[in-house]
Amino acid sequence: SSPHLVQVRERIRINGQPISKELFSKYFWLVYNRLEETRDTARASMPAYFRFLTIMAFHVFLQEKVDLAVVEVGIGGAYDCTNIIRAPVVCGVSSLGIDHTSILGDTMEKIAWQKGGIFKPGVPAFTVMQPERPLEVLRDRAQEQECPLYLCPELDAFEGDHQALELGLAGAHQRSNAALALQLARTWLQRRGCQDLGELKEVPPGTELTGRPVPLAPAFQPTDAMIQGLRDTEWLGRTQVLSHGSVTWYLDGAHTTSSIQACVRWFRQAALNQDKPHDGSEVRVLLFNATGDRDTAALLKLLLPCHFDYAVFCPNFTEVSVASNAGE
């Protein structure tokens, strides 16, 4: 997964834990030296940062003999270096947003085309509710690849008459991510021979679908392990609340229009549901940073309803002490 929050080792995890410093160092130099020994010095340079880490991650997973690898695309999909996997078990596309426009294109349809580049022949794929045109682009990409694409039902459908599913990640937008995760997990379990999670019927090409361009996958009753997994999931730096003395930090990594809107909804619910005292004992400070070619003015405008008292803007360079554990 990428990016990392504090240390580069966060990107390569086994059983949820970043690999140890010893393992990281061992595999880093093993891969680096092997590439250095075999490259064509006249024509080829070493792989760039993200490509190198992707190669290294695959090597780690192979050497450590993992049963299942969950690989997050870096940017886009079609031309991303993670897309070297020819026959994944299942593919998933989460909610689309406008980002990395200089690479992926400046419309949702162009971005959907890039994201659909991960679809593979005969490999089931799932996505969540998208705007109509981008969803049609995903459908067309899937049909080109002869990839069966399904739409995830809302998380409510997995709850049925049972108790509401509790999510460890805050924010209403995480409900669609959770529904997608359930479908991906179900597909893997069925590949392993588990038959108790309902049947995903293949829809013949050309079938007339009522009201939607992509067939709806059936919901199922989540297992106890799935329920616990959704409840225990945490991702540091995303909708995270940290209390430190009299200061409470609300952290999030939102950096697109849609994700900032989701962040504001979360923040208003988590921090602004009570009126601010008038005695000056509470001051609300926005600490903001953005990288790349993002439209910071547009992102900041979305934060106006939060009514911050002060705003602090961070530059895009850091000073790292020798004793720190920074990964870059």
Structural commentary:
This protein has 328 residues and is α/β, with parallel strands linked by helices. It has three domains: 1-69, no CATH class; 72-232, UDP-N-acetylmuramoyl-L-alanine:D-glutamate ligase (3-Layer(aba) Sandwich), CATH 3.40.1190; 240-313, no CATH class. 34% of the residues lie in helices and 9% in strands. The chain has helices at residues 21-38, 49-63, 101-104, 108-115, 132-144, 156-159, 174-191, 224-232, 257-270, 296-302; strands at residues 13-14, 17-18, 91-93, 125-127, 149-151, 240-244, 247-251, 285-288, 310-313. The strands form four sheets. The protein has a three-stranded parallel beta sheet, with helices on both faces. A two-stranded antiparallel ribbon has the order 1-2. The longest helix has 18 residues, at 21-38. InterPro entries: Folylpolyglutamate_synth, Folylpolyglutamate_synth_CS, Mur-like_cat_sf, Mur_ligase_C_dom_sf. One of its GO terms (cellular component) is cytosol. Its EC number is 6.3.2.17.
